[in-house]
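--- STAGE predict ---
source: upstream dedup step, 1 unique chain passed
mode: sequence only
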Amino acid sequence: MKSTIYLNGNIITVDENMPSAEAVFVKDGIIEFVGAKEEALRLADDNTVTKDLNGATLLPGFLDPHSHIGNVAPFMSFKYVAAPPIGTTTSIEVMKEQVREFIKEKDIKPGEWVIAYGYNDAELAEKRHPNKFDLDEISTEHNVMVVHASLHMAAINSRLLEVMNFNENTPNPEGGVIARVEGSNEPNGYLEETAMRMVYFSMRQPDMDGMVANMIEAQKMYASHGITTAQDGATLENIEALCRETARRDEMLIDVVGYNMIENDVNVTEYKNGFRIGGAKLLLDGSPQGKTAWLTKPYHVVPEGEKEDYCAYPTFTDEEVYGFCKKAIENNIQLLTHMNGDAAIDQFLNAYEKAMEDTGLTPELRPVLIHCQTVREDQLDRIANAKVEMIPSYFVDHTFFWGDWHIDSVLGEERAFKISPLKSSLNRNIKWTLHQDTPVLPPNMLRTINCAVNRNTLSGRIIGEAERVTPMDAIKGITINAAYQYFEEDKKGSITPGKLADLVILDKNPLEVDPATIKDIQVLETIKEDKTIYKK
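--- STAGE serialize ---
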């Protein structure tokens, strides 16, 4: 019977009944006592391990409220071409050289796929997306695809355009764009939304052993950021098979909750060896940084070639979205819905409200409004006063990584200052969570807390000072509120007797350091049910 005492550090419980403590006693992976050091020591026996924190800070393990760990797994073998401060890709020219070197380093044979991901056109010297002419300079013998950081756009080379049979006679797929060479119908290699996904999903997947190995590495990466529960936010058949096989092999280091696409079969399950299906995912629009989020008012600077009234476009019709919401409500399925633009948010709220009204059903399903980036004040009022509790999950890192881009090009100052309105939501007693949409960004929870608290952009501007929140507010967004979003608040999210000993140890206390330095705090150790799964 293993037991552990954690003591001699700052213990932030995230439990309002006892916000801090001197010690924590854990037995068989379950927290049994939180309180005074002397009392915890009296519970020890000959098999008890004493974990001296040496002044470090102990918190509940972080819960990732929205990411795509199943996509992170294959991405572990792709070339990362992010801009600073995460990566080193500052221009399309640099990207070309990096991908050419990647082909040599990995000895990728002609005819095989070469995938890079993470580029940010807003931070490239050329201030544009790559196209087939750029990628042909990397290789005309490989299938080259470079995926945008948002995962909503990509560019492919001429060879891959031929493989996909995308030509001047190919229409845009519903909910997507095949961009054209100016003045013609010839595809230029840049793709948006469903067009991009058609290419990605046509790629041959590695064998299961290779995929499981990638999945293990992905979990290790999440654990290095203090995460003990992660999400796969769009669990297609192949990803569900990967997760189930990883669980069958007892290789789930952390808990993973998957969400099937609502347009497919949805089979909600309980945990089995660390994996379960928690509900369904619905995708309503694209990304604001890629100018594919569906807005009610035009973009501040419309994309090249678009009309001045360009607001982007929906993925589904109103009738289709209503049908998906009705399906979720009638079948007691929690629905996680991607909605960045305020037009997409209107579409969801209208559909979900009508589905509740028409069915006469208001089950407690805690529908989650993923990203909710440009939510308006009147929409926050609707969320706060809805018949059922709705939970926005905000991608607040936009304030830092794309804040300047939103102010100068995407939304303009007035709308940009209101993205991820954490404080306005708190003022309405709306419970929210915070995420990074990994692999869009690494699952760096300390960076996310930093963004929520400071809201500074890459250039140092403050974007929406009125929407700043306290470090504790932000911590709740990745602990107790995230557990609540998952219906797991009785087992996770706080250091409370009876809950799992999912814990993270930090080198500094985020409640006491200079708020501008929260991003520099290091994860020293991550613990899942009293077992160390990461140690710095």
